[in-house]
Amino acid sequence: MNDPEQLLAEHLRLIRQSVTVMQQLLARVVLLLPLAPLWAEPPKVTVSFAPRDAGQLNEVVCAEWEPIREDQRLLRGFFHQSDLP
Q: DSSP characters for 10-21?
């Protein structure tokens, strides 16, 4: 298969196949990872936020997730929504 057109066609077929698999996985992500909706929400910090260092990033992330950590009802809901064995 040295024909450039055949190589391109095969490459595009593999890309389409990969996209299809990814779409199927994304459709099931809530079943596999019930916390996924938390990451889908837009962050409360501005889009242009750039942390000075890892410590500042950790502070911002922990502050963002603290209310969720304290909401046991919400956390139990995630556990019960999971489709894990």
A: HHHHHHHHHHHH
Q: How far is the C-alpha of 33 from the C-alpha of 26, rounded, in Å?
A: 10
Residue 34 CA to residue 36 CA, distance in Å, equals: 5
What are 7-36's pLDDT values in tens digits?
Answer: 889 999 999 998 888 888 777 776 766 666
Q: How large is the greatest C-alpha to C-alpha distance in the chain, in angstroms?
A: 60
C-beta separation of 60 from 45 below 8 A = yes
Task: Tally the C-alpha atoms within 13 A of residue 17's C-alpha that lie toward its C-beta.
Answer: 6
Residue 45 has pLDDT above 60, yes or no: no
Chain centroid, CA 51 distance in Å: 21
Return phi, psi of residue 81, to 5°: -75, -20
